[in-house]
Amino acid sequence: MYQNAPYTYRHPHPAVTTDVVLFTIREGELQLLLIQRANAPYSGMWALPGGFLEINEDLEHCAKRELEEETGISGIYLEQLYTFGRPDRDPRERVISVTYYALTPSDRLTPKAASDAKATDWFPLNTLPALAFDHAEIIALAQQRLIAKLDYSTIAFQFMEAQFTLSQLQSVYEILLGTRLDKRNFRKRMLALGQIEETGEQHRTGNHRPARVYRVKNPKRVEIIK
Amino acid sequence: MYQNAPYTYRHPHPAVTTDVVLFTIREGELQLLLIQRANAPYSGMWALPGGFLEINEDLEHCAKRELEEETGISGIYLEQLYTFGRPDRDPRERVISVTYYALTPSDRLTPKAASDAKATDWFPLNTLPALAFDHAEIIALAQQRLIAKLDYSTIAFQFMEAQFTLSQLQSVYEILLGTRLDKRNFRKRMLALGQIEETGEQHRTGNHRPARVYRVKNPKRVEIIK
DNA sequence: GCAAAAGTGTTCCAGATACACCCATGT
DNA sequence: ACATGGGTGTATCTGGAACACTTTTGC
Fold first, then answer.
1. Are residues B112 and B52 in contact, defined by beta-carbon separation less than 8 angstroms?
2. Which residues pair with A36 in a beta bridge?
């Protein structure tokens, strides 16, 4: 893929990577995807999906490509988070990491392992394994940003499947915020946003009244509210 | 300063720069600092202060260093904004720019020109000159972020000198928001933040009642409010 | 005494919060 | 008929918005 000839510059250049914090809601918890490293440095430890920027590739494209290569997941919400560049953050060479965070509904999860031999798995945020590089710091910032955005955007809709009930939506908010919410107030607030609409269908499950099914009017957009 | 020997890598590496959008309030307007380019590309056009990251230098250090080298300004509030990396954003080579924005009170402005021959000047945001690279885009994002932060942080205090009156503070908010504010409500809100305190001194100016003088309790910190 | 900016409280409104019961279904 | 989650309305609270006059100074 790469030629062997060296690339030369008059001044030293850092390497540039992208890393992605991919969140989903699984098993009633906020979880994120990690990849177990097969090689040094940090061999055996877990790390965020990511990799080196190609020389003519857009940053966001790199993040999406690495995510797809390593996990098979594509077409999801992705937003730049922060750029990390402590001089010693990678022992091999100077590496600047442009980080992104991404959200996906749990039905889009491709359980397939990565193309290469590395293991990939989901981890709840409060039981993370030992992490390579400064990835623990990146994850902490991503979680903080995600929670902050709940308050003033419709970002939580990115966790929902194409069709969902208000109870499912409320459950997502409750998991993210770590608190119970009042059902009536929650519904009032969500409907007042004007961002979701009924499909007309019903969702039947168990011995109780069927739930109305909703969809997001503009599923790709994250609206800033208030 | 640099040796002449080339640096070689197995894979191509982009260059990494930092650029800084430095805001201040001057002449009743929000203004920012630009530097006129002396060399190609974009020779003669205006650009943000910034430059190449040194190989063992922290990103934020690079931003501060370039700002000080080119403008003599240091010790001010600085925050990472976004990382720009379109493959064609610099015609010379692939350049990733980690951008920052900075705020300063107008009394800290060192009018000295940069050490080299380039011109530096302040420009109001609505009368910007022709800008090099994608710097117009960077400035637009910085302004948007600054205005958004007014609502939920004490970032505006970074424009104030060590001592100031509530009228001066209100004027800063009015300039940033582009609207007039009610004096009583404004004072109530500012004092309720608990972030400023009276110095006990008075500020006399003109034929009218002297104003009480305030200072920020914790001038380095930007608090998130509400 | 007059011009000019500093300083000060109360009413009103809107949006958020608290709260309890009936509905539709499967077994 | 009963167990289960789905669905609904009103009263209260709170923080923001609107609003006008008195105070202190320099000339």
1. no
2. A46
Regarding whether A124 and A19 lie in a shared domain, the answer is yes
Token digits of residue A153 = 């955007």
Task: Pick B57's closest partner by Cβ from A15, A82, A87.
Answer: A87
Chain B residues touching residue A9 (CB < 8 angstroms): 6-9, 13, 15
Instruction: Identify the pLDDT of residue A159.
Output: 98
Question: Are residues A130 and A186 located together in one domain of the fold?
Answer: no
Q: Domain range holding B35?
A: 15-152
Tokens of A145: 């940003």
pLDDT given at position A77: 98
Distance from CA of A125 to the nearest CA of B (A): 24
Measured in degrees and rounded to the nearest 5, phi and psi for residue B82 equal -170, 160
CA-CA distance, B137 to B149, in Å (whole number)?
A: 19
- B103 within 8 A of B23, measured Cβ to Cβ: yes
pLDDT for A113 beyond 60: no
Q: What is the pLDDT of residue A226?
A: 83
Taking CA atoms, B12 is separated from A7, A153, A159, B85, B95, in Å, by 6, 39, 37, 15, 12
Cα–Cα dist A171/A165, whole Å = 10
What single letter denotes the amino acid at residue A111?
P
Of B80, B87, B96, which is closest to A16 when you measure between CB atoms? B96
Instruction: Spell out which residues of chain B touch residue A12, defining contact as CB-CB under 8 Å.
Output: 7, 55
Share of chain A above pLDDT 90, in %: 90
Which string of DSSP letters, residue by residue, matches B116-153?
SS--EEEEETTS---BSTTHHHHHHHHHHHHHHHHHHB
When divided into structural domains, chain B yields a total of: 2
pTM check: above 0.90: yes
**Does the CB of B209 fall within 7 Å of any strand C atom?**
yes
Look at residue A141 and tell me whether its pLDDT is greater than 60: yes
Looking at the fold, whether B84 and B65 belong to one and the same domain comes out as yes
> Average pLDDT for residues A84-98, to the nearest whole number?
98
CA distance B27 to B162: 19
Given a cut of 90, is residue A36 above it in pLDDT?
Answer: yes
Tell me, what's the pLDDT at B226?
A: 82
